[in-house]
Every structure is written in C-alpha cells, then in structure tokens.
Specification:
By secondary structure, the protein is of the alpha/beta class. The chain folds into two domains: about 280 residues, FAD/NAD(P)-binding domain; about 160 residues, FAD/NAD(P)-binding domain (3-Layer(bba) Sandwich), CATH 3.50.50. The chain is built from 14 helices and 24 strands. Strand 18 and strand 19 form a beta hairpin.
C-alpha cells in the first residue's frame, strides 16, 4: 500500500457541495493547517456531477442553496444542474482549492489511534491502494449511494422489451424524442423529468403509487432582480438569503401546525392549470404536509405539460411489467417504449467509510449523534449533514463555523484529541431515530443503520434552523473531552 502525500492536519472526504464549503471555511479561518479533499469521482461537484438526467435542477432556491461567502448572481433562483456545477467550479477557483483536491480516491476505511492521535485512511486510488494519515477527519461524502439508485423488484421487469433507465445512471446520448415514456415515481426527480422529457417525447406518463405535495413557484425571483439593480449583487443576495431562510422555516412550522390551511394555496395553484378533478385524483396526498419533503414545480411546468396533453398521470399500483410497458392492478395498460425508474435513492452511512477506534469497529447504528455532527466515542471527526426541510447549505455553514471554532478551542487548550462521551445518565436516556417526523421511503429504509439521537442536548439532531444555530453556538460543553 502506497503512502499518501504527507500527513495532513485535516482530510475532507468528498469534493461536492459539502466538501467545498468545509474547505473554504478551513482555508479562511485556519490557513496554517494542511488539508486535502479526497474525492472518489474523477471530477468535483458530487451530486451535481453525478446526476445527468434531463432537466436536472435545484429543488431549493440558490440564495440559500448557494454559499453565504459567494453570492449567487445567476438569473434563475431555481438553477439547472449545469449552472450549479459551474458555480461550484468557480468557488474552487476563487479560493484556489484546485491543488487541494485528489480525484479518483475512494476512502474505504479509517482507523483512529489514540496513542498517535492520528487517523489512518485506507484509500482506493487510481494506481492501487494508498494510506493517508490526518489529525482530524471531516466526512462530506453525502448520504446516498453513488454506486446505484433504488429500483424495486417489479414483477415481469425482465419481460419489458423497451429501454429501462434509472435517473442516477442516465446514459450518454439517450434521446427520447418521439418516444412514449413512463416515469415511475412522484418525488423531485420524477417531477423534474416529466416536463423535461415532454418537450420532445410523443407522450410522457408519470406512474405514481401515491401523490406528493408540490408547490408552484417562479424560477426567477423578481424581488432579487430589483434589489440587484438598486443595491448590488452582494447586498441583494444577503437580503434575499435572509428572507428565504426565514420563509422556509415559517412555512415548515405553519405546515406542521396548520396543515389544512397550508394545503389550500398549493391546491388552488394546481387547479388553476389542470382543474380540480386532476388535482383531487393525482395531487392530493394522504399524509400531512412535510411528513415528506415538499417538491417544487418551477413555473408550473409539470402541470402545463399535463394540461397541454404532452404528459399524463396514472396513480395506483403496478401489477406487472409487460413486453410493451406496464399493467396496473386496476387493469389499466400503460404502453411505452422507455421506462424511467425514478424510484429513489439508496442511502449509505457517511460515504460507506468503515470506522475503527483503537481497533474497535464503530457501529453507527449503536452510536448516539453529538449535535448532529459527531458521534459518541469517536474522536476528531465531524460529519456534514444538512437540512431536509430547508436548503442543505444553511445547516452546512453552521456546521463549518462550529468546526472552525472547535479547532480554535483545541489550540487554546493545547489538545490533540476531542471526543464526545456519554455520561452515565446520558447513556440511559431514550434513543430516538436519526431523523424524526419523516415518512419518506428512502429515509425509512435506512434509518435503522443511522446513529440514534437522545432526548436532550447535546445528543440531538434538530432540523429547525434556530435550534441548530443555538446548539452549535456552544463549542465546549461537559460532553466533550479534550486531551
């Protein structure tokens, strides 16, 4: 096994939205520390480099999905995947991070030695296995499996004679022009794909087991456009970012407190385009708003495709695939040339990195999260995880400020190690799931593998911005041990 290129103060696993944000924070606040980003893919960008399906775009506005330190100046607040990838590349160039990224390096395992105060990483590199060492490990590899998405075992799927595609592995050069396409799913990916494919396909059918809550909004923020001309890009960005942050949290709380009132304007906007009958049949979920993530339909493009006859929706259960499409349990036949299985993601625990502490394997499912960023008994490690009910980046930046402050505290104390430890009374507390109040299938399928949270701070993982902000504002508490 070849040695890495020298010991690093910090190794960041991943060079996507999360890893790049951590690198900027580290370089800005701790320029004296050495660090690299180890990226398993051949290019940076993470999600935005992986997904290449038609219409790929953000599901959050770029004023909050973008970084606070780099104002989003694009015209569209809901941006294409290509525009987001360009933004990330610009960020890397602006902060001179190119030399900090090592591509084609998959971190398989990390071993912590308390005696040496060091992590040793087993890395699969372009020329074979490599060993890297660092003092602090930052996991920014996301939470879903880059090796493949989730495809249920549909009866008769091997009988289908047409093309079968999962959006996570969209083939280069695929052209659905003039074809009949079925998109199985009702989440953000399906809602993005259907109108994009309907621009050239003969017909697109969205086949959903059950409806999802969707919100229609413009992809251009008119107030942001006006403010830019009045106060400039940076000031406009900061004002709109703050406005959107507050609105996201207010809407989430309103949805949970007054679900019927929250639904009304969503339903009315849909009915204005496709009518009440279609809305009631295909866009009236059985669950409460924000039990699952609310999906965005920019400019109502999905509903315009339906009203113009370029797309349709079939709601129900698939009985079987047929040689020429799908048969529903209702008996309805959906004849198509292409089936796109937008059936969700497979989740993994922090980039599939296997952790060992002093020879003992870390069982994430038995660990307790520390503030949603660390894990009980695991030294010198943080993991990036954003919000599910708001823009991912808003939480990332709180995590990164905490990370920088934690390193400062270690310097003040002359400590080489910091570890969250459960006190005796904390060890006996109630254990709760990593995420609470969610019913999304892709999350529930994996929840048992994730760390648990307790019933008291700091052993909790809140999804409310103000609560997270207050929790991460405290750097040194009685649950942390510095050595």
């Amino acid at each position: 096994m070849e040695s890495g290129h020298g010991h690093q103060d910090v190794i960041i696993v991943g060079a996507g939205l999360s890893g790049i944000a951590a690198a900027v924070q580290l370089k800005t606040d701790h320029p004296e520390r050495s660090f690299v980003m180890l990226e398993q893919r051949e290019d940076l960008g993470g999600t935005w480099d992986l997904f290449r399906y038609p219409g790929i775009r953000s599901d959050s506005d770029m004023f909050t999905l973008g970084y606070a330190f780099k104002p989003w100046t694009g015209e569209k607040a809901i941006a294409s995947g290509g525009a987001i990838l360009d933004y990330l590349r610009e960020t890397v160039a602006d902060f001179d991070l190119e030399s900090r990224v090592r591509f084609s390096r998959r971190v398989l395992r990390a071993d912590w030695s308390s005696e040496a105060s060091t992590w040793t990483l087993q890395v699969e590199g372009p020329d074979g296995d490599e060993a890297w060492t660092c003092s602090f490990l930052y996991l920014a590899a996301g939470y879903y499996d880059y090796d493949g998405g989730n495809t249920p075992e549909f009866p008769g799927i091997d009988e289908f004679e047409g093309a079968l595609i999962h959006p996570q592995a969209w083939p280069d050069g695929v052209d659905c022009a003039g074809q009949r396409v079925a998109v199985i799913g009702s989440g953000a990916t399906a809602i993005t794909l259907v109108p994009a494919l309907a621009e050239t396909a003969e017909k697109v059918t969205m086949v959903q087991r059950s409806p999802t809550y969707v919100a229609i909004d413009s992809d251009v923020d008119e107030e942001a456009q006006r403010l830019r001309s009045e106060v400039g890009d940076r000031e406009a960005f900061e004002r709109i970012r703050l406005r959107n942050l507050e609105q996201q949290q207010e809407r989430y709380q309103a949805a949970r407190a007054w679900p019927e009132e929250f639904k009304k304007p969503l339903f009315e906007a849909i009915e204005e385009i496709v009518g009440r009958e279609v809305r009631e049949k295909h866009f009236t979920p059985a669950y409460k708003p924000w039990d699952q993530r609310l999906c965005l339909v920019p400019n109502g493009d999905l509903f315009h495709a339906i009203s113009e006859g370029r797309a349709e929706v079939v709601t129900g259960h698939i009985e079987t695939f047929t040689p020429h499409g799908l048969r529903m349990t209702s008996g309805e036949e959906v004849d198509v040339d292409v089936v796109v299985t937008a059936t969700g993601l497979k989740l993994v625990t922090f980039g599939k990195v296997e952790l060992h502490v002093d020879g003992e394997k870390v069982d994430f499912a038995q660990s307790v999260t520390y503030k949603g960023v660390g894990f009980s008994g695991v030294p010198n490690l943080l993991a990036a995880f954003g919000y599910l009910n708001s823009s991912w980046t808003l939480r990332l930046e709180l995590v990164n400020r905490y990370f920088a402050a934690l390193l400062n505290r270690m310097d003040e104390l002359g400590a080489t190690q910091v570890v969250p430890l459960l006190a005796e009374e904390d060890a006996a507390m109630e254990r709760r799931p990593w995420m609470t109040g969610v019913t999304s299938g892709y999350l529930l399928r994996h929840m048992d593998d994730m760390p648990k949270q307790g019933d008291r701070a700091p052993w909790i993982n809140p999804q409310v911005h103000e609560a997270t902000k207050a929790l991460l504002a405290v750097v040194d508490d009685s649950s942390l041990r510095f050595r």
